[in-house]
Design a protein that fits this description.
Layout lengths: L24 H11 L4 H38 L3 H53 L2 H5 L3 H43 L1 H48 L1 H6 L3 H53 L5 H42 L11 E7 L5 E3 L7 E6 L5 E5 L4 E8 L8 E8 L4 E6 L5 H8 L7 E6 L2 E2 L5 H6 L1 E4 L8 E2 H6 L7 H10 L3 H5 L8 E2 L8 H15 L3 E5 L7 H15 L3 E5 L3 H4 L4 E6 L2 E6 L1 H7 L2 H12 L1
Parallel strand pairs: 7-14, 7-15, 10-13, 13-14
Antiparallel strand pairs: 1-2, 1-3, 3-4, 5-6, 5-8, 8-9, 11-12, 15-16
Helix pairs in contact: 1-9, 2-3, 2-5, 2-9, 3-5, 3-9, 5-6, 5-9, 6-8, 6-9, 8-9, 13-15
Length: about 650
């Protein structure tokens, strides 16, 4: 999608920036109009149809004066057949006018449904596209429930406004202007009475409607909080039941639900009392106008037809004014939601200033590289120099950290001057207490976060010079929290390399020792997984994640507690497969199980963001330091 004008604002902790009112109505409306630009001719037809509908209504009311004064009164005094024929023709003409008005109303409502759905389609595309480009940090600092609320609550509110409220608002506005003009033409004296009463009605709308709008905005925020809480609780049902925290969760939900109830109640109280107040004031206005108009008719200042038409205009005027007040609340609510959406769309995407790419190559007998456009199993870093020459560096997986210091937040350092290296094909393990910085190291290798101090390089090339998609194609990860997508088992494994054949998928599954349990599923590799594969055990899901990493055939492998959800027996069964998976790859292993890390070439012991010990298993045991203490603890557990 092409770019739109930017609006100010950004997210806050816990979700996209919440707001009580839209902070920049004009800018937000301009951006919504931008999405509707391709339907400008349809919108022109809609606008013309709204005018025709409003004018038809005004003309129909104006015709009352002609019908009464020119036809009904004369016909009551003289049964003139010619006058009767004219009367029938006038009635027919007015009927046609009303039919045109009805047709115009149907037309603009029908067209706006199409315009609104197309507009929201474009907004959803831009929103989802932007979310896919946002850095991991954004998702670490914003709740999933609030993000989902953008697609459900905010976009649905915007849909209602685009399809109904905007056209209703314009129609009401044109009706008010047209009716007021006709009232002045008929009687400026009666119009003064109407203006005085309407001023009182507008004051009521401003006071009561303003309070209602504030509570409706608050209601939108509370809905986002409730949605986020519900989503989190659904995901954590097992934990809730294990620790018997149902009552505590219900209490927390009741607090959030009570806040939503209060805001919704207050919003609807003010919205609901506004209608009776406006209706009663309109009745008072009608009665006063009828009384004064009757006096004018008695003394001959106004005709009976004029007074009746004016009374009808009076009744017609109050309805669109009331509609404008109600539609204004809906519009303000939707604009607040639209600002939340645009704030996310305006978020800075994940920066990628890299120039180096990873390309497939063929090696000759002298290990000379030739770039090709098909998969060979060998890759090279392609770097274009300033003079136009191209340098190829074979992808081997040589990873070096040089004095890296990093923190997720300012003044909170997680890694302090970490330096390490991993030669091609080596297994490097990280151990240490929770929060020591083990996972942070792997987050930095794949540039989920960038380092402010120090350098990280792969094969002698600083990773910030490598394009992020190419850098990440050189890595495969198996995380502790396994996520599988809706689709077949084969599709989930193939996610690691989309061009993999069925035979390669099966081979990867055998490598991870997942083939046996897959074949026992109802439809084998074609078994459809839904709800994050809830019908599989956690260990089985982890095996599929390992197979997915295996099929990627990357030079660097990251295993973050990859076997944490697999029982000891299953771990022994897949250990040989894991060894085959890591063969020839530079592997970074985060694990608490001794059996997983003891075969590593180098084991790094981290505490408080610093490497306090390094060496292989035997060397660290001999040192009888922190690793020895951790190992002793593990021995005791087993």
């Amino acid at each position: 999608m092409s770019r739109q004008p930017k609006a100010e604002g950004g997210p806050m902790r816990g979700g996209p920036k919440g707001m009580g009112k839209p902070t920049n109505i004009g800018q937000t409306m301009k951006r919504i109009a931008y999405y509707m630009r391709e339907d400008k001719w349809i919108l022109l037809i809609v606008f013309i149809s709204i005018i025709v509908s409003a004018v038809a209504n005004i003309v129909g009311i104006s015709a009352l004066q002609i019908i009464i004064d020119n036809y009904l009164q004369p016909l009551t005094q003289n049964n003139n057949s010619e006058l009767m024929r004219e009367f029938i023709l006038v009635i027919g003409g007015i009927s046609i006018v009303y039919l045109v008005g009805v047709g115009s109303t149907y037309l603009f409502n029908r067209l706006m449904v199409g315009v609104s759905t197309r507009t929201l389609y474009k907004i959803r595309v831009d929103l989802f596209t932007k979310m896919e480009s946002l850095p991991i940090k954004y998702y670490d600092t914003n709740t999933h429930g609030n993000l989902m609320s953008l697609y459900t609550n905010d976009i649905d509110t915007l849909r209602q406004v685009l399809s109904n409220s905007i056209t209703g608002f314009i129609n009401s506005l044109i009706t008010v202007v047209g009716v007021f003009t006709m009232m002045i033409i008929y009687s400026w004296q009666l119009t003064i009475i109407v203006v005085l009463m309407m001023s009182l009605m507008l004051l009521s709308i401003r006071v009561i409607g303003g309070k209602s709008a504030n509570f409706f905005m608050r209601q939108q925020q509370e809905i986002g909080r409730v949605n986020g809480f519900i989503e989190e609780m659904i995901e954590g049902q097992k934990v809730i039941k294990v620790f018997s925290r149902q009552e505590r969760v219900i209490e927390e939900f009741e607090v959030l639900n009570e806040a939503l109830r209060n805001s919704a109640t207050s919003a609807n109280i003010f919205a609901n009392i506004l209608m009776p107040i406006m209706v009663n004031l309109s009745y008072v206005l009608y009665a006063i106008t009828a009384m004064v108009g009757g006096l004018f008719a008695i003394n001959g200042t106004l005709s009976i037809g004029t007074v009746i038409a004016f009374l009808q205009f009076t009744r017609t005027l109050s309805q669109p004014i009331n509609q404008i007040s109600q539609q204004m609340n809906a519009v303000l609510t939707s604009l607040a939601g639209a600002e939340r959406i645009f704030n996310v769309i305006d978020e800075k995407p994940e920066l990628d200033e890299g120039q180096v790419t990873m390309v497939p190559v063929e090696l000759d007998q002298d290990n000379q590289m030739t770039e090709v456009d098909y998969r060979t199993g060998e890759f090279a870093w392609k770097e274009e120099n300033a003079d136009g020459s191209i340098k190829y560096t074979r992808v081997r997986g040589n990873v070096v950290f040089s004095d890296v210091t990093f923190g997720y937040e300012k003044n909170k350092t997680v890694l302090k001057g970490v330096s390490l290296y991993a030669k091609p094909g080596q297994k490097i393990a990280f151990v240490g207490s929770t929060g020591a910085g083990k996972t942070t190291i792997t987050n930095l290798i794949n540039r989920f976060y960038d380092v402010p101090s120090g350098k990280i390089s792969i094969d002698g090339i600083e990773i910030n010079k490598i394009k992020k998609p190419d850098l990440r194609r050189s890595l495969a990860m198996v995380l502790q929290d396994t996520h599988l997508f809706t689709g077949t088992v084969m599709e989930n494994i193939r996610y690691g390399r989309l061009d993999a054949t069925d035979e390669e998928v099966i081979a990867a599954a055998k490598l991870a020792n997942a083939d046996k349990f897959i074949r026992h599923l109802e439809n084998g590799y074609q078994t459809v997984l839904t709800s994050d594969a809830s019908n599989l055990s956690q260990g089985q899901r982890q095996l599929l994640a390992i197979a997915r990493a295996a099929i990627a055939e990357t030079p660097i492998l990251i295993l973050d507690e990859a076997t944490s959800s697999i029982d000891t027996r299953t771990e022994k069964l897949i250990q040989k497969g894991m060894d085959r998976l890591m063969e020839g790859k530079t592997s970074f292993i985060i694990a608490h199980r001794l059996s997983t890390v003891r075969s590593a070439k180098a084991i790094m012991v981290l505490e408080h963001g610093e490497i306090i010990e390094r060496g292989d298993h035997d060397q660290l045991i001999e040192q009888k330091g922190r690793y020895y203490e951790l190992s002793a603890g593990l021995f005791e557990l087993t």
